[in-house]
Amino acid sequence: VKQLLDVGRVAGGSSPRFESCAVGPIVEAAAAQVRTATRTPVVITVTADADARVRADPDLLLQVVLNLVTNAVHATEARGAGGRVTVRCEGVERSPGGRSVRLTVEDSGRGARAGELDAIFSHLMPHGPGPRSARNPGLGLSLVQAEVVRLGGHARFGDLEERHRLSVQWG
Q1: CA 134 to chain centre
Q2: Which of 83, 108, 116, 124 has the most CB atoms around its CB within 10 Å?
Q3: Are 61 and 98 in contact (CB under 8 A)?
Q4: pLDDT tens series, the chain, 171 aa
Q5: How far, rounded to the nearest angstrom, does the alpha carbon of residue 42 sit from its chain's CA centroid?
Q6: Phi/psi at 140 (nearest 5 deg)?
């Protein structure tokens, strides 16, 4: 139900309120929320550059990070008890000049299969093995893609060698 409400909010087109946001505290807050809500013992590690900032809507940015980390935890849970999720937020140089912020989420789940990579951001593409269900409606990454684009960034899923990694970049 929560993801369906998120779809409505994104599709509804309400304008983001852009402001300068420190990304690290938002990433830490999202990870803490997911840790609290997770039943399986998944280790969530966060590394964030203290000076990583973007112009974004802080609520949308929090939702992006929550969706990414939750998706990674679900992918890890699908493999059985335990696992790890690593979240990195870093400022990166871009050319010509300037900096951008890259957020990378990596998990110890099975990763996307070759046939899933092209459709990974599609609506109703469930994560992990098994069909869509109430717990796994397949909306999380499509919401991430829509919200990231609204915030002026882009999302990229790893290739076959990096199929456990999803990166989002702004700037």
Answers
A1: 20
A2: 83
A3: no
A4: 444 444 444 445 578 888 999 999 999 999 999 999 988 788 999 999 988 998 889 999 999 999 889 888 888 876 666 789 999 999 887 767 677 888 999 888 876 666 665 665 565 545 444 444 444 444 567 777 778 778 777 777 665 555 567 777 876
A5: 16
A6: -55, -50
